[in-house]
Amino acid sequence: MDQDRHYMNMALELAAKARGRTSPNPMVGAVLVKDGEVVGKGFHAKAGGAHAEVVALADAGDRAKGATVYVTLEPCCHHGKTGPCTEALKKAGVKRVVAAMTDPNPLVAGKGLNILKDAGIEVVSGLLEEEAKELNEVFIKYITTKIPFIVLKAATSLDGKIATASGESKWITGDTARNYGHRLRDAYDAILVGVNTVLADDPSLTARLPEGRGKDPLRIIVDSMSRTPTSAKILTQESAAHTIIATTQAAPVERRASLMAAGAEVIVVPGEGPGVDLKKLMVLLGEKQISSVLIEGGGKISGSALNAGIVDKVAWFIAPKIIGGDLAPGPVRGEGIQFLKDATKLYKVTVQNLGADILITGYTSKGGDKISLLEL
């Protein structure tokens, strides 16, 4: 069993190499072992590409016959952009398959493991299952609900301020925490802010990693009246990612047209108004196969997201600074709650140091498949 855990950990590490690159697919790693020797390994590098098992089988070649396969997710058994991995494993002649977890995708959901069993292959499932679920929390939510996994990020001073009374906010946290924030952008499909952030800061909303390998997230601006300037960086900068303006029917038609002419995709979100209905927006984003969203706006959008009940995870950076002042803004605006029993409660909370700053993460539900944030 210790050897099984060793090789499954190796498969999990391989899978994590594709973090932020496989959406809407899961991250999957596979390791082939024969006579105590690793003979093949691979991971699913990007959506539409070869699956981890196929990559590992190709790496092993003829040595795959009689081998044990360690895979972080149940092998698929349906035809998509690639063929079924169950058939590839049967054809290669593997004798044993150890899967960390069954696939929550209704098209698979245990069928793949049963096909392998029926073919006379020994099957073990559930080894390091929690770790595998941690790895693919985004995929698990998206494939079962078709709604994106939502992370709310905030950075505050020790006394809960996101800026001074004059609006100065650069920078509350230090370099290490900010670099971590860019890694979050790199890991999730999209970043969402409110139009007030665009008007006040004209942000780039790109992933700027120290090693220069960041993947810019899709940019989503919640802008009920389409006030985003066509000269904003989110529309004029060079970036492989595009920008979505989520607006309402009340927004002037000419403003919507000018934003589309500037290269933005404009989504009119149905609802009673006056603001954008965030729950309905998440449904529309899910239909576009956007599986994860990082909310990184000001107090208004954060308050709206919490009130709408769309947040799955919170990433809260705290700097050892005291700003003070009644006019200095806080991270969550709106009317607020009247009673403590109605406060948003976090579960499975973790705390870590990032330079001089602290990162607190937690989940807004007690779900058993919830975990801490990225280990970066």
UniProtKB/TrEMBL annotation:
Residue span, CMP/dCMP-type deaminase domain: 2-124
Pathway entry: Cofactor biosynthesis; riboflavin biosynthesis; 5-amino-6-(D-ribitylamino)uracil from GTP: step 3/4; Cofactor biosynthesis; riboflavin biosynthesis; 5-amino-6-(D-ribitylamino)uracil from GTP: step 2/4
GO molecular function list: 5-amino-6-(5-phosphoribosylamino)uracil reductase activity; diaminohydroxyphosphoribosylaminopyrimidine deaminase activity; NADP binding; zinc ion binding
Keyword Hydrolase: yes
SUPFAM superfamilies with a match to the protein in the record: Cytidine deaminase-like (SSF53927), Dihydrofolate reductase-like (SSF53597)
Residues where NADP(+) binds: 155, 169, 171, 197, 201, 224, 298-304
CDD domains linked: Riboflavin_deaminase-reductase (cd01284)
Alphabetized Pfam families for the sequence: dCMP_cyt_deam_1, RibD_C
Residues reported in the UniProt entry to bind Zn(2+): 51, 76, 85
Cofactor: Zn(2+)
Stored InterPro entries: APOBEC/CMP_deaminase_Zn-bd (IPR016192), CMP_dCMP_dom (IPR002125), Cytidine_deaminase-like (IPR016193), DHFR-like_dom_sf (IPR024072), Eubact_RibD (IPR004794), RibD_C (IPR011549), RibDG_C (IPR002734), Riboflavin_Biosynth_HTPR (IPR050765)
Keyword vocabulary terms for this entry: Hydrolase, Metal-binding, Multifunctional enzyme, NADP, Oxidoreductase, Riboflavin biosynthesis, Zinc
Family: In the C-terminal section; belongs to the HTP reductase family.
UniProt-recorded name of the protein: Riboflavin biosynthesis protein RibD
